[in-house]
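User: Sequence in, structure out. Go.
Assistant: Echoing your sequence, followed by the C-alpha cells.
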Amino acid sequence: MTAPKATLNYVEVTSPKPDDTRAFMDAAFGWTFVDFGPDYTDIQGAGCGGGIERGDLRAPLPVIETDDLDAMYARVKDAGATITVEPFDFPGGRRFQFREPGGTEMAVWITT
C-alpha cells in the first residue's frame, strides 16, 4: 500500500497583536495578506503558505498537506503521536493536530 502524500506546506504563527505582526511582515518581507475574519490572516507570497492567528504566543505550527486525512490520522497515531485536536472542518479544508513524541505540535490537512 502506498503511503499518503505528506508535504510540509504551511506554517501558522500566533500573535496577541496580529495587526503589528502583519505590518512587520509587510514592511520587512513585502508579503501580502488575505483576512479570514477578525482572528486569522493568510500570508501570501512567502514561498510557503502561512497564517497569523490571534492568540497567546506559542511555537510555530508546521502544517502538512495530505491526500488522505483518515490514513494520515491513523499513521501518526500508530507512530506514537498524541492527537491534540480531533479532525475539524474550516473554509477550504479539514485538519487535525497532534504532538509528536518529542513534543512538537504539528497539524495535517487536506483540501476539500
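User: And one key feature?
Assistant: The CA atoms of residues 33 and 72 lie 29 Å apart.
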